[in-house]
Amino acid sequence: MMSPTLPGRPGNLTAEQEARLQELWTVTLRVFGVQAPDRPEDVEHQQQSGSLTATPDKKAKKKKNSIFRRHNGDNDEGASADQEDKYGQGKDFQQVLATVDPEKLRNAFWSMVKHDHPDGLLLRFLRARKWDVHNALVMLIATMNWRMKEQRVDDDIMKNGEGQAAANSSSSNAAVKREAEDFLAQLRLGKSFLHGTDREGVWNIIKGWLDPVVASKVHFTKNLDELERFVEKSHIIKELGGDDPYEYQYVEFTAGENEKMSDESTREQLVEERARTVKEYEKITQEWIADSQNRATLQQRRNDLAERLRSGYWQLDPYVRARSLYDRVGLIQGGVIQHYAESETSNAPKAPAAVPQNGPLPTEHRADDVD
Questions:
Q1: H-type helices in 241-294, by residue range?
Q2: How far is CA 253 from CA 28, 152, 338, in A?
Q3: Nearest to 255 by CA among 318, 189, 162, 329
């Protein structure tokens, strides 16, 4: 039985939340260099919703962050936000806008979407920043920059995966070999360790550095009863006193499991097809923002395109993502993410249905997922 959709997610938005989502889409697309259609309906919508105007191209370099300049004045929202920039993301945001090509940001965003509903991704940042559009965009851009430059999530971690670590474990370079061996040893062990006993005391210091929304998601438990407040006993492993007989076992990398990643022709074909769908989604999203009279129809078209992006990603996935433990043990099965084994009497998992906006979440998401 599917869990009910939580508030603030695709499928359960208030009118005010939907308006904030439209505002965030407006400024996000402008950061990506995708301009809204020059129609009277757009201008009227921006004036009514308080959406922020873009800077003319001639002044882009000088005041690139003035996408946050309101239509009714020259005060930059970013100025007040900088004074409360507790996490330093505001400065990173301004630096990214001044130095990173908009198309690179756009590509990073759509790479981050993967099989998710694009609205779902933006809504995570809106919820994390208490529906403040400016702060949500700042956080979004900072996150994309981190993925691109610091962690290289897609062009290193996802692309190379455990197979590269297995290869590096035989490297003649001592440092490379040691790093790979340590990484694989951690995977084979299946455990992480924290040294020290005063974890809550340390946490009381650390949580002051975090956003309250993030800090509220961290809980410490001392026994089974406390753990059951957050996890069903049937999903707690027996080692911790629960009923789940699951025992971790690392399944080793096997030669040939990433064979499809060498098929450049198929990969390029799927990438080009996804790019066309992305452009169509952006275009329909602009119309959805501007045309309140036909919003329901346009929203359904966005849903259809979101489903095309979802299913298209899973076709592309084996050509861009190295296989991992989750693939080898069957947790990821061609687009179906199965966290817990089905009972013998249950039906085999089926591929998720189309993802409706303001409707149910896809089956691979649980309504109680932690963002």
A1: 264-290
A2: 39, 22, 20
A3: 162
| β partners of residue 70 | 52
Compute the distance between CA of residue 205 and CA of residue 202 in angstroms, rounded to an integer: 5
Residue 100 to residues 108, 121, 279, 310, Cα–Cα distance (Å): 11, 21, 21, 27
Q: Beta strands 52-53 and 69-70: pairing type?
A: antiparallel
Residues 22-34 as b/e (b if ≥16 CB within 10 A, e otherwise) read bbbbbbbbbbbeb
Q: Where are any strands of DSSP class E within the chain?
A: 52-53, 69-70, 332-333, 336-337
The DSSP string of 3-32 is PPPPTTBTTB--HHHHHHHHHHHHHHHHHT
pTM of the model: 0.76
CA atoms of 48 and 51, how far apart (whole Å): 8
33-47, 263-277, 279-293: segment of lowest average pLDDT:
33-47
20 Cβ contact partners less than 8 Å away, ≥ 6 residues apart: 126, 131, 133
pLDDT tens for each residue of 65-88: 455 543 334 444 444 444 456 556
Contact 18, 132 (CB under 8 A): no
Query: Which of 32, 116, 107 is closest to 312 using CA atoms?
Result: 116
Percent of the chain with pLDDT over 90: 50
Report the pLDDT value the prediction gives residue 3, as an integer from 0 to 100.
Answer: 62
User: Angle CA(282)–CA(287)–CA(291) in degrees, nearest 5?
Assistant: 160
Q: What whole-number distance in Å separates Cα of residue 105 and Cα of residue 355?
A: 25
For 239, left (φ over 0), alpha (ψ -120 to 50), or beta?
A: alpha
Contact between 321 and 160 (Cβ < 8 Å):
no
Half-sphere exposure in the Cβ direction for 359 (13 Å, CA):
15
**The pairing of beta strand 336-337 with beta strand 69-70:** unpaired
Instruction: Note the pLDDT of residue 279.
Output: 97
Whether residue 25 contacts residue 122, with contact meaning beta carbons closer than 8 Å, is answered with: yes
CB hemisphere CA count around 105 (13 angstroms): 24
Contact 312, 319 (CB under 8 A): no
